[in-house]
Design a protein that fits this description.
The complex is a heterodimer of chains A (440) and B (331). Chain A is of the alpha/beta class and 440 residues long. Chain A is 28% helix and 20% strand. The longest helix of chain A has 18 residues. In chain B, helix 1 packs antiparallel against helix 2, helix 3 crosses helix 4 and helix 11 packs antiparallel against helix 13. Chain B is globular and about 80 Å long. Classes of the chains: A alpha/beta (440), B mainly alpha (331).
Chain lengths: 440, 331
């Protein structure tokens, strides 16, 4: 019996477009636009100047703070511009534009050969920091921070999030199928760094081939276990995943490490394996380019800094003018205003949704049908959060309706027959409360 | 990069996540409830003939027209096709005798939509079930017309008679059984609707079938009708008999006086009841208790309408007290 949680929704997963398509290596773009901020935390500052020649894997922006992560050139060539460019998350961001020389030459010393088993834990941590690892599921939290929990929070369990519960996305699915050994190596490295002996790989049941592949790759490794999860959104949200697999809830306002758990994304552990064994920094990633408006949806291995329009062109362009273009999945991804934004480390998918995909409809008053209450995996009352948020009662949202417990999974909006933009009001209320807190 | 690929994006919509939604809508829900009521409504036409049709048409047209005028006047988006005003009209028609003068359903519908629904802000903001407010308004204004029921057109033409609960209240249980023949004849008449009553309260079986359809579609929770009818059944069995405790006739009470109509179609009105299942169970039990209180001790032979309206008052309180169990507060 596959494990599950209370609440959630079950949208049509639409993974059929790309689930059976092997990862395709994209050609080197003529130009890459690399933002100096590709993670949650402090932005980096650029270490190159216009006119410099850079090599693949060379640091081009250095971290200034602990919660930050360096940025590397994703191909060799010449820095032709350092300027503000559109950014998929932050609106605009200072970006290093590199014109490719077509050689795709590695910086000196790369790639190398190392055995992770012989490395010290501190060495591995430093490698993870230097190679710019961030969470590749979309949240882009710097990995070296997550892998170094404070001593008073002992970690006993590692969970690999292979749920990929967002509809449309198949990048993690393909990686688990095609690179299952690499995934397991990454998990083993992560477990070594964290000093844990118990590891789980959670995969939704709609990917039986991935479950089989990972089971095969895990066989003979003690303490590592594949867990089949019921296909239900948001199965892959950190908190629900921990609740399902460990049977413990992360306390309100807490982090997974408060219950002794660290969760990592599939792409991230593969990148960790590459970084530790070959010294390769995070300069490319697997991205699913899909949606009802895409001619030929694909899973692409893309260089960081490739623009969305270049990625879309590799998939044959669009069948119609897309209603929305999203970075990430349709439930939690971010709507984009232009295709000129680059792929960053957290770009798990590019969705071009057709008019029939989106089904927006005019917003109506809440009819209190209670579907959002049934769907909320956090046990909140989303309808009230939207009502008090709409009326500007942000304080009430926080104090009476547990605003800060919302993980913004969007299940409530998905089921709402009144088409209310509940997550919008929740984000607004959170921002307003944060602004008030800053003023005080 | 292939240059011929079509990359035309025009103006992209930017909004907060999520970006896909299910195909459920207010209109779909409201029209489904209308559809679930249709068999019972058609049966009332068969039972009461032309007056039932006129009554229903006046109620529905007046309800929709009132909503239209108010929306127009307030310059709000025109949403009369969502089926909610239609539903209020239909429910009100089901709640009154078929043979009342034409102006009674008219006034009732205007009161339901104009007062109960739109003074509160329209669909979603109303505290009370509009159709029940309309009925309460009419019962207070025209008590005699509202409690004079026609016998079935298919049976005795033009003769009026009391409802089973009216007979029970005024003449006693033995008289009631005597009128219908015996107990099993009484139950059969109540179940299939071959007795006098409001248009929609007669046929228990068709109302229940419609209710099951709504439960199946997920538009109402089974807990509400089951707990409300169950509470009425238990309490009337315990306290409703003349011969002492636990001698009442629960089956008679459960199938009469609009309890089934109220429990399946009005106590379940999502706008006016608590939002959590636990809250809804509290609501249903409370409504059942008030119904029995009014029926056994109050001045009216039946009390479903007032019981639900009184519980509507308590809904915001229940919602404040009964909340879902939060993640992180479990185990």
């Amino acid at each position: 019996m596959a494990k599950s949680f209370r609440g959630g929704v079950h949208p049509d997963d639409r993974k059929r477009y790309t689930a059976s398509k092997p990862i395709e290596i994209a050609p080197i773009p003529e130009k890459v636009i690399i933002p100096v901020r590709q993670h949650i935390g402090a932005p980096c500052s650029s270490t190159v100047k216009v006119g410099d020649l850079v090599k693949k894997g060379q640091v081009i922006a250095e971290a200034q703070a602990f919660v930050s992560s360096p940025i590397h050139a994703s191909t060799s060539g010449k820095v032709v511009e350092i300027a503000e460019y559109p950014h998929p998350v932050f609106g605009t961001c200072l970006s290093v534009v590199i014109e490719s020389d077509g050689q795709d030459e590695w910086v000196e010393g790369l790639p190398l050969q190392r055995d992770w088993k012989t490395l010290e834990i501190t060495e591995i941590k430093e490698i993870i920091r230097q190679t710019g690892m961030v969470g590749m599921g979309g949240a882009t939290f710097p990995t070296h921070v997550k892998m170094a929990p404070p001593a008073e929070k002992p970690i006993h369990t590692f969970i690999l999030n292979g749920a990929e519960c967002e509809p449309f996305l198949t990048a993690d699915h393909r990686v688990m199928l095609e690179q299952s050994e690499r995934v397991v190596t990454g998990v083993q490295i992560a477990m070594k760094v964290l000093g844990v002996t118990k590891g789980y790989i959670g995969i939704e049941e709609n990917k039986p081939d991935a479950i089989a592949a990972m089971n095969k790759a895990c066989s003979g490794i003690t303490g590592l276990e594949v867990v089949a999860l019921q296909t239900k959104y948001p199965q892959g949200a950190e908190k629900t995943l921990i609740g399902v697999i460990c049977g413990t809830d992360v306390p309100t306002g807490g982090l997974p490490m408060d219950v002794g758990v660290v969760v990592q994304n599939v792409g991230t552990v593969v990148a960790i394996a590459d970084a530790v064994e070959k010294g390769i920094p995070l300069i490319e990633r697997v991205t699913t380019v899909t949606g009802g408006a895409v001619v030929n949806p694909k899973n692409l291995l893309l260089r960081i800094g490739t623009t969305f329009s270049q990625a879309a062109a590799l998939c044959g362009g669009f069948t119609e003018v897309p209603a929305k273009v999203i970075m990430g999945g349709p439930m939690m991804g971010m709507a984009q205003r232009t295709l000129d934004v680059p792929i960053i480390k957290g770009t798990s998918g590019i969705l071009a949704l057709s008019q029939t995909d989106v089904n927006i409809g005019p917003e109506r008053p809440c009819i209190r049908c209670g579907r959002c209450v049934d769907a909320c995996p956090m046990g909140l009352i989303p309808s009230m959060l939207s009502i008090v948020g709409e009326r500007g009662l942000f304080q009430v949202a926080k104090e009476e309706y547990d605003l800060l417990d919302c993980v913004e999974c969007g299940s409530c909006v998905y089921v709402c027959p009144a088409k209310r933009n509940i997550v919008h009001y929740i984000k607004l209320s959170k921002a307003q409360n944060a602004a008030v807190a800053v003023k005080k | 990069m292939s240059a011929e690929a079509k990359i035309d994006v025009g103006t992209l919509t930017v909004s907060a996540s999520p970006h896909i939604r299910c195909d459920e809508s207010i209109g779909k829900i409201m029209w489904s409830v209308n559809g679930a009521l249709a068999p019972a409504a058609l049966f009332s036409v068969y039972q009461f003939g032309l007056p039932a049709i006129t009554n229903m048409l006046i109620c529905i047209i007046a309800a929709v027209a009132t909503e239209y005028l108010i929306l127009k006047w307030q310059e709000k988006p025109m949403v009369i096709n969502d089926g909610s005003a239609f539903l209020t009209g239909l429910l009100l028609a089901m709640n009154i005798p078929a043979t009342v003068p034409w102006y009674i359903p008219l006034v009732g519908s205007i009161a339901a939509i104009g007062i109960a629904k739109h003074t509160m802000g329209g669909l979603g903001y109303n505290i009370y079930n509009p159709a029940l407010v309309g009925r309460a308004f009419l019962l207070a204004s025209w008590p005699i017309a509202m409690t004079t029921w026609p016998s079935m057109a298919s049976k005795l033409d033009g003769v009026t008679s009391a409802t089973p609960l009216g007979i029970l209240k005024l003449q006693g249980y033995d008289k009631l059984v005597q009128i219908f023949g015996d107990k099993s004849d009484l139950y059969t008449a109540m179940f299939f609707g071959t007795r006098s009553g409001s248009m929609g309260e007669t046929s228990a079986v068709l109302l229940i079938l419609g209710g099951i359809f709504l439960i199946y579609r997920g538009y109402i929770n089974w807990q509400v009708p089951v707990f409300m009818i169950g509470t009425v059944g238990f309490l009337t069995f315990a306290f409703g008999g003349k011969a002492g405790l636990f001698t009442g006739d629960p089956i008679l009470h459960m199938m009469s006086g609009g309890l089934i109509l109220g429990a399946f179609y009005m106590a379940t009105d999502m706008v006016t009841i608590p939002i959590t299942i636990k809250g809804q169970i509290l609501f249903a039990v409370g409504a059942g208790m008030l119904t029995v209180l009014i029926r056994l001790l109050g001045g009216y032979p039946e009390g479903v309408c007032y019981a639900i309206l009184l519980m509507n008052c308590v809904t915001p309180l229940i919602d404040r007290v009964v909340k879902p169990v939060k993640y992180g507060a479990r185990r």
